[in-house]
Amino acid sequence: MTRFLRLFPLIALFTGVAPMAILYASRHLTHLREGEAGPLFTSEFTQQFLIAGALTVVVTALLGFFAYRLRENTEYMGAAQDTWLALLSHRKVALVIVLTAGLSLFLELALIRWQVGIFPALAFYKNFSLLACFAGIGLGYALSGQKTIPLAFVIPLILWQVLAQFLLVYGLSDLQGVSLHASPITEQLDIGLNSARTRVQVLAIYIMLASLFLQTAACLIPIGQLCGKAMMRTANLKGYGLNLVGSVAGTLLMLLMGQYWTSPVIWLALVCAVVLYLMARTARGLRTSAISALALLMLLGWQQDIGVQAIHSPYQMIERVTREDGLMTIRVAGRFYQRVYDLRAEHVAHLDDEWAQAEESYYNLPYALAGEPQQVAIVGAGSGNDVAGALRANVGAIDAVEIDPVIVALGRENHPERPYDDPRVTAFINDARSHFRATDANYDLIIYGLLDSHSALSHAANVRVDSFVYTIEGFEEARARLSEQGMLFLSFVNLGDKVLGHKIYRMLEVAFDGNAPLALYSEESERYIFVHRNDGLEIPAEVYTAAGYQEVSAEFAEGNESLALSTDDWPFFYMPKRVYPFSYLGMAAAVAIMTLLMTGLLLPGKPRRGHLSYFLLGAGFMLVETKAITELGLVFGNTWQVIGFVICGVLLMSLVANFIVALAKPKKLWVPGGLLMASILVGYFVAMFWGFQSDVTGKIVAIVILTLPMLFSGILFAGLLRTDVSVAGGLAANVFGAMCGGLLEYNAMMFGYQSLYLLAIVVYVCALFSMRDKATPALALD
Prior knowledge:
Layout: H1 7-34, H2 43-86, H3 90-118, H4 128-142, H5 154-171, H6 184-189, H7 196-231, H8 236-259, H9 264-279, H10 286-301, E1 308-312, E2 317-322, E3 328-332, E4 335-339, H11 345-348, H12 354-370, E5 375-379, H13 385-392, E6 397-402, H14 405-414, E7 425-429, H15 432-438, E8 443-448, H16 472-480, E9 482-492, H17 499-511, E10 518-522, E11 527-533, H18 541-545, E12 550-551, H19 553-557, H20 582-602, H21 611-636, H22 640-664, H23 670-689, H24 696-722, H25 727-744, H26 748-751, H27 755-770
Helix pairs in contact: 1-2, 1-7, 2-5, 3-4, 3-7, 3-8, 3-9, 4-7, 4-20, 4-25, 5-7, 5-10, 7-20, 8-22, 9-10, 12-13, 15-16, 16-17, 21-22, 21-24, 21-25, 21-27, 22-24, 23-24, 23-27
């Protein structure tokens, strides 16, 4: 039996335990929350628990049956795949490298997007899915010199993952609410694990994460191994260069998928097509993979609720639901997100709905407070409720800024007042910070709609798409776009026991030179509103009391001195204080344990001593890349297109470094090592004391300063790889190092993102010292 099959009992164990743990945690939390005096296990719950256990046993048994059926054919299929690869011409081997590298990166991005769409909790554990993919790809490279794991495993393992996760999400829908669909806002408020509720919840989620980690890594191992075996048939730098070309292609293809709002059915259909193409010359296992592919696409295409339209935007899975009154509600990853209202006077007059009347008062309030503004900006414009309110107030010009194009499109098609069709409205598909930096307009009123992202992810680091909107610098940039008598109007619903309200109040106070904002609250709509006038004039109380709001400024004016205010360096708005992320340490420990278990089961022997340099270079590169993506996102915009092209740029920079080493063939690496240290220090001091500006010169400076460390790091890596005996081994160590760097990113949640520069310097210094080993000539610095 091949070593790969040793993973199956481990996967089956965690897959079987995860649903039971989620059920138990859900019941325990419900029992705790409601203060029930009765037993934890009621007869009804015990029955549900046993039914879920039986379903889990059945589904887990399928994995065991699958492993048993393939056991006898695994070595035969592996040998056939080896023979096929050995008979390929050098030109076709190059094609295999490009295809497998592109496939691994495309599948990585597809799984990350699909997983966060089905599990909002992953918005809290931002780069968990990425680390799982790194583990699978790294293990695949490391196994390049071992017996071949046939590609016949890939599609059935993806099918298994989808089936197992659908069981968790849809099979346990009655009791999953407090565990699987927990709001990342609530979780980040409890990030230090200060409450018993959080500890129980996180324990159950850790078990689910372990299951998901194993399932994700396993399906990428055969692809990584085939890529590594193909690279071993070429010169090191040529194979690495082809690998980078494929990685760029895979990234660009996923960008194309995002551009056209394609669904996971399309993504994984492309994955299945490439896998089946690569298997076409080794007929054994092809039928099983084809049947699995068909079942996978049918499962992904299954629509749980016929009345729900699901659209995968570049940021999140959006669901359009039609309510009984014929109007639209938008959900994100199964959670409520936005609700469309028809607040035209003739419609509201016939409503006996206190909630709708409260909504009318809310959307009309900014214009009662600001007088008669003629130029208005609405950030987080969403499906158009705020825009419709501005039109009802006869505003002359409205800039509606919304980062998600799908939400705007749904608003155009489904909002009864058709606000986006009005010629006075200009829609900008952009993030708020980028819009304020790019526009020359001065606004009489800036409205922050309900743009808290709930679960939407940034493509960079462990932040969400709204993280850099709610920072002191973000508020200062908005203030700079206000006219002399302009007003800023910010609303929020989920304040997390008012902690976030204290933060907003204090941050606005700082951004407006110490002048405190006006804080309002409505019991009817349960909304908090923060208002600030640029001229500092007071707002008459009768204006907002007539709309059903009362002033609560005194509540937020005190008790906020100890809060950590969000800045561009520390943009964790949903965290009240800088606390070390102990819950992330638990996740990091789970990742490390799962990776070590998999490594112990799959890899014989110990890693080569020379691999330490590759490992450290991978960790440092990940830290520098994260900081570069964060800074460039702020300069160019945190939209998905910008972040995607930045990632492509990082890969292209590595490709340029590879070409430089191939042409120059450097023997001494102390020069790029010294330039690497210097470039990181320059980036640190520029970011710390001056920052990167958004004008043309600032953008050029940002690109140069932030990408040079990746160029020099790439030269070091390619210089080591040029004379090494194993390109696949070096890449494996580098990917595992990137995993370590991904875990080190979480230190930013305590120390800020600038600290990543300092961490990178420490890691790179260790890497440079490891290269001085005279016993390994290829790694010598002098």
